[in-house]
Each structure stands twice: as C-alpha cells, then as structure tokens.
C-alpha cells in the first residue's frame, strides 16, 4: 500500500503548474490544474507503485454564479493496493472545458457524457460527446445552479 | 374528466429530434442495416433502447440509448434534507432498496461522525435485511435471465420463493419494495416480535429450493449451451471499464467491498466471495456471471443465519431498546467532500456528497451507479456476436434501469 507522502511526491512531480492537497475530503484529494490532468492521470495509472487501475466516478460540481467556477472530481481506486484518491480540477464556469481521460480509462466515456449532459462541461477529444440522460434537444444543463426549468417541452406542459 | 387537459401535440419528427440515431442510413455500406431493440421490450429489462448496426446477422456495433427513466435524483437531492433523500435512494435500484439505504445511511453517519456509536443490534438488523434483499435481487437476476433465453418455468418458481422475502420485509417495514426502513442513525422500527423464527423457517424452506433451481436452470444443458463461452469479458477490460459486482467477479477477480472495506459488521461474519472459474467454458462468460450470483445466494443465506444467531443471542431484543435513539434531530455535517461506497448486488454503489456546513441540504449529491458503469461495457463485448447472444450478454450483466437513469 503506497504511503500518502509518496503519492504526494508522485503527483507533485507530474504537475507542471503545482498542486495542493484538499484538507476536508474523504478520500484525500489533490487539487490540480486542468493543464496537468492528463499527465497526472497517466502517471497514476502507469506507475507500478500507485497503479490506479479503476476510474470509479467523475463528478461535476457547479460552485455558483458568484464564484464563477466549476469543479470536476475524479475518484480513482487502486485495486492491488486497496487505495483511493480523488483529483479535483477547477474550470471557469462560462468556459468549462477539460481534457477527456477516455483513452486512459474507458469507464470515463459515459461518466463524462453525463457531466456534459447535466452540467455542460465540455470534454475535449472525447470520442462521442452526446447527451446521455436527457433528450438530445433539451435546452440548458439542469444541475447548474442558475438553471430555471422550462414550462413546456414539445408542447407538453411540465408541472413541478 | 376534461380531455382538453392533455396538451401533447403530436408531430411525427418529435422522436427523431429528442433521441436521434447514432448511425445514419446514408453512411451504411451494402449488407449493413440498423436494428432497433427496445425501449419497450421485455428482454431489455426496462426501458433501454439498443441501436444495433448489423452486417447480415453479425453485430458490428451497439449504441445503447438510456435516460428514458430519468427522474432527476441529483436535482431532487440538492433540494432536500439528508434524511428526506432516503425514499429517493430506494428508487434508484428498486429491487435492492435495503442495500441502497444501508450505504446511504452509512455515508451520512460517517460525515456526522456518529458511525461508530451505532448499536450492534441495529447494525446486525441492517445486514440481515440487506442480505435478504440481496437474495431477492439475485433471484430476479437469475429468473429473468432464464426467461430472456427461453426458460420460462424457473421464473415462476423464483417469484414464488421471492414472495416470502418480500412479505418478511413488508412485515418489518410496511412496504414491499421501497422500504425507507434504514434511517440515518438507526432504524425506522425494531424487528417485529417473532421475526427471527419466521426468518429461520424461511431459510430452511428455501435452501432445497435453490438446489432445485440449480438443477433445472444453472446445470441445464440448454442453458449451458446458450451461455458458456458467450460474451467473454476479459479481466483487464472489465477493470478499465469500471465494472464491479458479480460481473467483475465472474471475470475472476476476488473483489467484494464487503471484504475489502469491511464496513458495518461484515468483518465479524464468516462468508466467502465466489469468483468465476470457467467451469463450463471460458472465465468471464455469461454462465460464470450467473453461477457467481447463484453462489452468492448461498453465502447470503449463511450471513443471514449468523445474523439471526446474534440477534437471538448476544444482541437479543430488550424492552428498552430504541432503534431511533441515535437518529439526529438535525443533520448538519461540517463542510467537507465525502465519497462513500458499498457493495450492492449489482456492484459498487457510491455517493459523493459536498456539504457546505451551513445547511441541512447537501450542496451536491452524486450517485455513482454500478449498473451505469456495467452497462457501458456492453458495446465492448458484443462486437461480432449474433442478436440472440446480445440478449444473453445483456441479461447476464443484470442491469436495473432505475439506477442507470436515476
């Protein structure tokens, strides 16, 4: 099982723009820059001393209009070492773009489509970025904090 | 009843606009065609639509269309206090509501820091009802799978026996499927008087029935012919696609979060984790996955017996026992990010919470659904098979659309 300090040095080494450790997070989380994401993910998956072979979850969080940012959180799990870690990337709300990790973990494909669908985060170089849960002609992204629901969808009144 | 209340204006192109095909007819080569399966078809286990690109009879590519059952769970959760989310959690994977509640309650308790104060009797009751529900879920999985590939009788046998579990759980909680029984910090109510005896009677009754089921279905030659060497899921692909649960264990990895994380009272209970061994064909084929579920039923029965021993012995019912003693009046965790995971019959169910520390409502609640990740492997392993095998593969993954679409 890798020590957390060792993990810190691996992640810091893979980051060109620096990283910080999130204090109030379970499992422990690294906040990294979007530009470093691909390199960090590749290192964590390939390095024999970490071997994060499973991407468990991709979550998008809208931090609200005042802050103007969104978080993308990747939960990784290492089956051989039984160790978990999270990576946190912050992107601008009106320009939410981050590189897709689909070619590292195939699991990312649908999770990223879901984040795109519900929060409008664009994943660059994603092989098939379409809406997944909502209809293709739905307007807006419902999990954004400033989303207002529409009264009609194709002539059907939506009663809430 | 005023009929003018219905305001839907039918237009022929509505469906094409809301869920367009991935493959276009113009781009097809000769001999190729698009086959549409579902969303209203019993073999798709709910409302799943599969768009299949075929070359003659061979499948070239599959594009699943999901979302027909989307109920905005995460949007609801952002507007409700933690304890009021539990009924919505029931409705994620509606055949394993107890397991969902168990993991959700565990996560919120850990965030509040009261997880280690929960009485042992409460934990044993939680594991007892969760394992009963796990059996019910695996029964549905095996029964409907048999029906998918043409075995009709086992389904009725299984439904007959599953009814006993549902009645026992109804007796405890008041509901047949969606229980709202496990609360944050405790339980809705203690087990009814005499529940333990009835439950033990059920275990003794059902054990030979499962042997019967094995003979008529799992070891049946027709069933083996339809499932062995079909839909082989290699282990590295399974891990890369985030597959968990019996589907992953069928590929030969002994990975069960009940053992790995050892949450609740599972470390005190003796049970083993069956994995696929390729007894009838290749490791990771459809037969292995079904067999793993069958073996897990036996292990769950073992867990139930041990829980009943504890609940009638060491942690037996007392007059002053209050299962709601620790239920917090106000659930307000400190500001934090929290991810909790646990093993439900289909795989790893996880909840990601972001609490802002100022309100009783989660700022963000994301559900990591195991059926969602498991289904995404379908397009990888169903290339170059026949349509009949596609149905066999889909059934062996055991999906519940309520959890995929949320």
Overall pLDDT confidence of chain A = 87
Number of distinct beta strands of chain B? 8
What share of residues are in beta strands of chain B?
5-15%
- Computed over alpha carbons, the radius of gyration of chain B is 22 Å
Largest interface: A-B, 43 and 47 residues
Please write the string of helix (H) and strand (E) elements of chain A: HEEEHEEEEHEEE
Distance between the termini of chain B: 32 Å
Uncertain spans of chain A: none
Please tally the helical runs of chain B, counting DSSP H or I stretches of 4 or more residues: 16
Please state the overall shape of chain A, judged from the principal axes of the Cα atoms.
elongated
Helix content bin of chain A = 10-25%
Strand line-up of the largest beta sheet of chain A? 1-3-6-5-4
Computed over alpha carbons, the radius of gyration of chain A is 17 Å
How many alpha or pi helices of chain A? 3
Q: How do the strands line up in the largest sheet of chain B?
A: 1-2-3
Note the main sheet of chain B: 3 strands, antiparallel
State the assembly state of the protein chains. heterodimer
Biggest sheet features of chain A: 5 strands, mixed
Describe this structure in words.
The complex is a heterodimer of chains A (160) and B (406). Chain A is of the alpha/beta class and 160 residues long. Helix content of chain A is 21%, strand content 31%. Chain A has three helices and ten strands. Chain A is elongated and about 55 Å long. Chain A starts with a helix and ends with a strand. The mean pLDDT of chain A is 87. In chain B, a hairpin with a 2-residue loop joins strand 2 and strand 3. The model of chain B has no long low-confidence stretch (mean pLDDT 89). Chain B has 16 helices and eight strands. In chain B, 44% of the residues lie in helices and 12% in strands. In chain B, the strands form three sheets. Chain B has a three-stranded antiparallel β-sheet with strand order 1-2-3. By secondary structure, chain B is of the alpha+beta class. At the A-B interface, strand 2, strand 4, helix 3 and strand 10 of A face helix 1, helix 9, strand 6, strand 7 and strand 8 of B.
